[in-house]
Amino acid sequence: MILFVGIVVAAVFFWLGMYTNHGQSITMPNLIDKELSDAREEAEDLSFEIIVNDSIHIVGRPGGLIIDQNPKADSKVKENRKIYVTTTKYSADIINFDDV
Asked: What 3-state class would DSSP assign to 21?
């Protein structure tokens, strides 16, 4: 019985190591100051998914540039990770004070 339990426990730990990719990691690329479309292509090549978390208008900067990312560049992450980014807007929000 002890041998059976030992084999089952060893099999579970082996399966968990394979399922979670234990010990395997990819270095997160630096996406700051890259166009969103270019960054998406680069991320897909490394099996990452980019999710735009926020966008900010910055005067003098073109729209569609990544200005922040999480996880940070050069951190070790696993495959199929989501990368949350903040981008620059193409134009500022227009506030109509007549409606307020």
From this structure: coil
